[in-house]
Amino acid sequence: MFYIPIICGSTRRDRQSIKVARFVLARLQQRMEAKTELLDLLEYNFPVMEERLHRRDDPPPRLAEFGEKIGRADALIIVSPEYNNGYPGVLKNALDYLLPEYERKPIGIVTVSAGGYGGINCLAQLRLVALGMGAFPIPENLAVSRVHDSFDDHGPRDPAYEKRATEFLDDVLWFAEAISDRKAKDKKAG
Question: How many CA within 13 A on the CB side of residue 66?
Fold first, then answer.
């Protein structure tokens, strides 16, 4: 079974991306081959990063717990709104606290926007950040446009998101398995 946590990358009041994060969480929980949980940055409330976790002997509250979860994950899903053609600073701050925890880890990216483009600028930037962290952003993504119209508290209003979420999660699990298999071979050989 693969452990694949989902980071909700916004702490803004009245954030809409939490609806999408909960939807992805519910769909991943239905998969027999995955264990998941929501890592909501609103609940973690990290201060501005001064130094990476592995270089600190006095980490902020819950940072070690967050780092341990990311470190043991087989893959990671990030759900992020697009703010001002980018991603939220709180997400960058949380990601920057860690580094070795991301090495060779597949990352699925879900983007959310109020407009009609589904957060494509946020997606492009997060893919670059994932590569810079030594992770593998997977090719498939789940982009949600017009989130106020597309989602309510119970999930998507448009059934097309069910199919798109299935395809996205299939890809996340494929990469989790492929990379996990390779890591196991390397460990055996090493």
Answer: 28
* DSSP secondary structure code for residue 78 in this structure: E
7 strand-pairing partners? 39, 78
Stated as kind and residue range, the H or E segment containing 54 is none
The whole domain housing 126 covers: 2-189
* Class of residue 77 by CB neighbours under 10 A (exposed 0-12, middle 13-18, buried 19+): buried
Given a cut of 90, whether residue 56 has pLDDT beyond it is no
Provide the number of structural domains found in the chain.
1
Q: What is the pLDDT of residue 12?
A: 95
The CATH number of the domain where 142 resides is what?
3.40.50.360
Contact 169/141 with Cβ under 8 angstroms? Answer: no
Q: Is 153 exposed, middle or buried (0-12, 13-18, 19+ CB in 10 A)?
A: exposed
- One-letter amino acid for residue 55 of the chain: R
The candidate with the shortest Cα–Cα distance to 7, out of 70, 55, 54, is: 70
Which pLDDT belongs to residue 187? Answer: 84
Encode pLDDT of 167-182 as tens digits: 999 999 999 999 999 9
Q: Is the pLDDT of residue 17 over 90?
A: yes
Arithmetic mean of pLDDT, 138-159: 95
Q: Are strands 76-81 and 106-112 parallel, antiparallel or unpaired?
A: parallel
